[in-house]
Amino acid sequence: MGHWRNLLSDRRGNVAVIFAVAAIPLLMGLGVAVDYGRTVVTRSRLADSIDAAVLAIGSQPAMSDADAKTAITKWVNAQVNGAAIGSWQVDSVTQTGGTIHVTASGSVPTTLASLVGVKTLPVVVSTEAVRQAKKIELALVLDNTGSMAGSKLSSLITAANSLVDTLAKGTKQADDLRVALVPFSMTVKVGASYKTATWMDTQALSPVHSEIFDKTGVNRFSLFEKMGVAWGGCVESRPMPYDVQDTLPSASNPSTYYVPYFAPDEPDTKSGNSAVYPNSYLADVTTSTNWKTQETYSAKYTKNFTKTGTNSSTGYTYGPNSGCGLAPLMRLTNNTTSIKSAISAMTAVGDTNIPIGLAWGWNTLAPAGPFGDGVAYTDTEHSKIVVLMTDGQNQNSNPGGSNSNASYYSSIGYIWQNRLGITSGSDTTRRTAMDSRLSTLCTNMKAKGIQIYTVRVEVTTGSSTVLKNCASSPDMFYDVQDSSQLLATFQSIAGEISKLRISK
């Protein structure tokens, strides 16, 4: 009897039994904890990838929600390739008013938790990104010189239009984005509709009006009328120092006025050398044999053109509008359809004068001046931005031979007019003088708070220093080796301008 009593009172094995029974829920809890931890890590990894993908598509051309969903899916797949994140999918992408909202979900297979029937744990990710809050005033200052003809100009048109689309996609209201276009070559075409604008010198007060004629007070607009030729709408560079300033045109200082571009009739061809003076379109009615007297004689401008059509060596039409065949600029507008139409209408003609293009880019953004369309420089709600693109270096070419002008006519006149601070010199000397004007112009614009992106395309000679220094920062200069890369370059710039930030 005592034996059975002792046996029943012996509890030495109970610890093992109790532990065995208790181990089951402990292991279950541990398994769930381990699997939950894996799920948290997986959700974090997926969320980071989704955030990065959303920011990445912000630098892409405008796309539909469906295309954005596809792009985000591909981007995340590439980033998490090989990572154990289970199954996942992008459930929705919604783009409204500059905000991109993305939801994604998936599941993570369990390990220990599967022993108690929990095969997967759910993962849900939601993120939202918004574009920068500032409104944008953007001037596209684009090289339309003759060297841009063909595939380069086509690539530029595609790239510029995609930039506009990308920026427009991220705007909440129409006025959040206004864009201006300034095609440039050796001049800029403001358009003939500005003939009587208050900032145009209709009275021949500026000294630029008569520099190429035999007497002062010659009015270029009057000469156009005498010949029965419409002014083409192109303008001259203002004389130094106003060529690189935003000084307002004023009657008290006539040099600040803008003067119509007028390519003078050059001396008649002598000895059958048609390349010597490429823009001879009137008879030399003076009896003088001096080339300058023949060229500057203002009384010869009548309707009696001796040549019409296009000069085969320059590609310019004969006449006072020679070299003014490029597309006109467009002032700031929130109508993206109109600006894209203007971009698509660009054409290639002429030599390269970057300063006049950039100066008119400044004019389109300025709060005063020819247009006065821009907000005040002190307005903190707006960003003023220029994208300057060129495929060449500044150029003031010498036709060579016996051409006594020693240059083609352009918005800075002839080299002998001293509009660059020099009256002669090699191509390098002339380029250096023009680069100096450009550098000063860039400095003046940046001092007003204007951000400048510069793009150099397929330039294999010379230095990129002047464009690098013109850009607001080193990473805002792009040296594009092939024009086919322009689309990607402009997409990158659009992404920088309309940067996304994760808000949720």
From TrEMBL:
| Keywords annotated in UniProt | Membrane, Transmembrane, Transmembrane helix
- The yes or no answer to whether the keyword RNA-binding is present is no
Domain named VWFA: which ranges?
A: 137-185
What residue ranges are annotated as transmembrane?
15-36
PROSITE patterns membership: VWFA (PS50234)
Q: Which InterPro entries match?
A: Tad_N, VWF_A, vWFA_dom_sf
Give the source's domain of life in one word: Bacteria
The name of this protein is Flp pilus assembly protein TadG
The species this protein belongs to is: Kaistia hirudinis
